[in-house]
Amino acid sequence: MQGSKYQRWFQRASQNVEAALGAELSTPSRNIITEDYVRAAFMRGFALTYPDGASRVQRESNVSWTAAGCVGGHSIAGSGRPLQHDVGLSGDPEDPNDNGAILELKWLTSAGVSAVAQDIWKLAISRGTSPEGSATRSYLALGGDMRAISNTLSGLSNLGLALRWSPAGRGSAWPRPSSINLSKAIDTPIGSDALKRLLARGDHFRSPPACWAELRASLRARWFRSVGEFMGSSALAWRFLVWEFDHRNIGDTTLDWDMLFPSKGIVCPFGRLTSPLSGQAS
Q1: Residues with Cβ < 8 Å from 189, sequence gap 6 or more?
Q2: Residue pair 17/38 in contact by the 8 Å Cβ criterion
Q3: What angle do CA 195, 269, 200 make, to 5 degrees?
Q4: pLDDT tens, the chain, 282 aa long
Q5: What is the CB neighbour count within 10 angstroms for residue 169?
Q6: CA angle 126, 138, 34 (to 5 degrees)
Q7: How far apart, in Å, are the Cα atoms of 243 and each of 117, 141, 183, 259?
C-alpha cells in the first residue's frame, strides 16, 4: 500500500473519531472520554472505511524492537512488559515493501509534554532509517481540551519537537510540515528523560535500532469544536489532531547512541559487555 493510500485511510478513520467526539461534546457524559474511547473509535474507523483491511488493524501491537538486548550487551528477554504501539496496521500481504503503519494516541485533559515526547521517541525509533518507500508509516494523534493541547504543543516546541496544526495566518490553508529535531530534544532534560523512560526495562535499558536525528511532521487531520455553558454543563473546547512523520528532504544524520547514552545516564548498572551498536568489547 502506497504512503498516499495510508494517508487517506488515516484521514477517513479519523472522521469516525470526530463523529464520536461530536456526539459526546454537548452531553454531560463527555467527562468520561478516555484514550480507550478515542482509540476504539479510531480502530472502528479503520475497519469501517476499508473493510478489506479490517483484519490488519491491531490494538496495542508490539514495538518491533521490544525484545532488544540491554545497552550493556546483557540479555533481558522476558523481563518487564513489552513495549507496544496504541494501534498497529500490518502491511499489505501482497506488497513485500509494505511494512504497515503505527499510531500513538493521547487524550489530554492537562499538559502532557513528557508523555507525548516519549510517544514521539517511540515512533521515531520504530520508524528507523529505512528508505521512505519501505519505512513503517508513523502517526501521532492528540486530542482533548484545547488548553491542554496548546500547552503541550508549546512545551514540545521548546524541546525542538514542533507540531503545527493551525494555518498561522494562511487563511484556510494547512500548515507547512514542521521539524521533529531529535538531536535537540535529547539535549533537553525533558527530552532525554522521556527517551530514558522509554528504553528502561527493569534495571536495564533496551538497545534501540538506528534513528534519524530529524524527521518531518505533516498534519493529516484536524477537528476542533466548542460548546458554551448549558444547564449546569460548563463550556468546553476540544481538538483532535493527527500528524504523519516522514524523512523527506532531510539530511541523513543519525543519532549516535554510543556517544549520547553515557551522558544521559542510559547505562547498564551491571557494566557493559559489548558496544550495543558495534558489537565490540569495551
Answers
A1: none
A2: yes
A3: 25
A4: 888 899 999 999 999 999 999 888 777 655 668 899 999 999 999 999 999 999 999 999 999 998 888 888 877 766 667 899 999 999 999 998 899 999 999 999 898 999 999 999 999 999 999 998 899 999 999 999 999 999 999 999 999 999 999 866 555 678 999 999 999 999 999 999 999 999 998 888 999 999 999 999 999 999 988 875 554 556 678 899 999 999 999 989 999 999 999 999 999 877 666 554 444 443
A5: 6
A6: 100
A7: 14, 6, 20, 30
Rg (the chain; Cα; Å): 19
How far apart CA 62 and CA 57 sit, in angstroms, is 13
Q: Rounded to the nearest 10 degrees, how much is the dihedral formed by the CA atoms of 274, 277, 280, 282?
A: -50
**In the block, which residue shows the cell 469544536?**
225
pTM here is 0.91
Which phi and psi angles does 160 have, rounded to 5°?
95, 10
Q: Which residues pair with 58 in a beta bridge?
A: 88
SS (H, E, C) 247-279: CCCCCCCECCHHHHHHHCCCCCCCCCCCCCCCC
Cell numbers that stand for 218 in this block: 505533516
**Do the Cβ atoms of 243 and 139 come closer than 8 Å?**
yes
Number of separate helices (H) and strands (E) present in the chain: 7, 9
Are the beta carbons of 64 and 135 closer than 8 angstroms? Answer: no
State the CB neighbour count (10 A cutoff) for residue 31.
12
User: Residue 241 in 3-state DSSP?
Assistant: strand
- Report the distance separating Cα 103 and Cα 76, nearest Å: 26
**Alpha carbon separation from 43 to 89, 105, 108 (Å, rounded):** 10, 12, 19
